[in-house]
Design goal:
Blueprint lengths: L4 H4 L2 H5 L4 H9 L5 E2 L12 H19 L9 H15 L8 E4 L2 H12 L5 E6 L3 H8 L4 E8 L2 E2 L4 H7 L5 E4 L13 H14 L3 E4 L15 H13 L9 E6 L11 E4 L2 H15 L4 H12 L2 H27 L5 E2 L7 E5 L6 H10 L2 E2 L1 E2 L12 E5 L5 H20 L1
Parallel strand pairs: 1-12, 3-4, 3-6, 6-7, 7-8
Antiparallel strand pairs: 2-9, 4-5, 8-9, 10-11, 11-14, 13-14
The chain binds pyridoxal-5'-phosphate.
Length: 413
């Protein structure tokens, strides 16, 4: 008898659904298609030669270590570098015990609900939020509470009431800097308020920050974890991040390579240790050759110059896309002007279905991601996301011109 696999799926297994971005991925492979859909870095930004050199050096000099099983929390020197240099550059005092290396930032978004959520627990997410986060959280059966996002990021004012009325919220998941998909950045005032509210209600914040280094304009803002350390430090004195409310999710995907699958979580050592225990049962540890190759690049001082080059590349692409949208998009359509990251968020007049516009756009060989799947509350029918990092300047010119023609046609009917 042949197994009826679907009939055997668990309740959890039945909640798994494919991502809208991944579904569009197949369409974007069609010849001639210009895709603003994925969140992919530019292929020109990949340092193939430097990675090859670093990898060969690791294998020649430490091959027997790199190819052996490793420690779950991660390669010691890389943890030290992330704590002592990368997080320190952001303003956090931390040590390696505050850092767990993971297989991309997305793995952290699976490990955190694994240790914190029971089915039916309430969590707060932004509306819109990162589609990949919803896909991870969904598996643990949370009850979503949402806070809307505007040009200054999450509207944290409503949060006090939500947390007061719904005791037991397990965490607040936010992207304060260069939001995916909304492209906005949380203002300084709201950052402070959010950290204070979380502390007042004793609710953790998950700060997802994979785009931190990709700033093209405007002034840097301190991460929430740094503000939280300052808040806690005021009563407890200096020292590494021991007690606190924030788990910070970092990633090498946008500054090195998403294919290498390398990220980390930084937070209070006790909870980071528990996340490491959860990771043991998932993949034991993140690929050691990948960690050691990345550390070799860190040690060579590769990142500052490389990040500067990527910033310049993406700044040009962002500017080009924004100026073409300004020139060609019809009245009634509005969009964000991001200071960094990879995305522009577009809002159509009320009642217009971005999915319908996508179907027309695909006929003209241009693709984007409709916004609705990014809303846990089902809103966002009239929104969509444009990525500006992956297409060349010529493709941006052609693609935005084609898309503007589709929008003009559709909005006039
Ligand atoms: C907000 C956000 N978090 C996390 C990730 C995942 O990154 P990683 O490739 O490190 O898993 C992404 C990637 O697009 C993202 O946009």
């Amino acid at each position: 008898m042949t197994t009826q696999w679907q009939a055997l799926y668990s309740e959890r297994g039945r909640t798994i659904r494919g991502s809208a971005v991944r579904d569009i991925f197949a369409v974007t492979q069609q010849p001639g298609m210009i895709s603003f859909a994925g969140g992919m870095p530019a292929p020109e930004a990949f340092p193939c030669e430097q990675v090859a050199e670093a990898f060969v050096k690791v294998m020649r000099e430490q091959g027997t270590v790199a190819l052996q099983y490793g420690a779950t929390p991660g390669h010691g020197p890389l943890r030290q570098y992330i704590a002592g240099v990368m997080m320190a550059d952001l303003g956090l005092r931390s040590g390696p015990e505050n850092v767990l290396i993971t297989s991309g930032g997305v793995q952290v978004l699976d490990l955190i609900p694994r240790i914190l959520l029971d089915p039916g627990d309430a969590i707060v997410v932004e509306a819109p939020t990162f589609l990949g986060a919803l896909a991870s959280f969904d598996l643990y059966g949370p009850r979503y509470l949402t806070i809307p996002v505007d040009n200054d990021g999450a509207q944290v004012d409503g949060l006090d009431r939500i947390l007061a009325e719904q005791p037991g919220v397990k965490f607040i998941y936010v992207m304060p800097t260069f939001h995916n998909p909304a492209g906005c950045t949380l203002s300084a005032e709201r950052r402070q308020r959010l950290v204070e509210l979380a502390a007042a209600h004793g609710v953790p914040i998950i700060e997802d920050d994979p785009y931190a280094q990709l700033r093209y304009s405007g002034e840097p803002q301190p991460p929430l974890i740094v503000l939280d350390q300052q808040r806690a430090g005021a009563s407890r004195g200096e020292g590494p991040y021991r007690e606190g409310n924030v788990l910070y999710v970092g990633s090498f995907s946008k500054i090195l390579s998403p294919g290498m699958r390398l990220g980390w979580v930084a937070g209070p050592a006790s909870v980071v240790g528990h996340l490491a225990r959860a990771k043991q049962g998932v993949d034991l540890h993140t690929s050691l050759p990948v960690q050691m190759t990345a550390f070799e690049l860190c040690q060579r001082g590769f990142f500052p110059g490389h990040i500067e080059r990527i910033r310049e590349l993406y700044r040009q692409r962002r500017d080009k896309m924004l100026s073409l949208m300004q020139e060609h998009f019809p009245a009634g359509v509005s969009w964000t002007r991001p200071d960094g990251g990879l995305f522009i968020w577009v809002t159509l007049p009320k009642g217009i279905d971005a999915g319908r516009i996508l179907a027309e756009a695909i006929k003209e060989k241009v693709a984007f991601v409709p916004g609705q799947p990014c809303f846990a509350d089902g809103n966002g029918l009239n929104t969509f996301r444009l990525n500006f990092s992956n297409a060349s300047l010529e493709q941006i010119e052609q693609g935005i011109t084609r898309l503007a023609a589709v929008l003009r046609r559709q909005l006039s009917t």
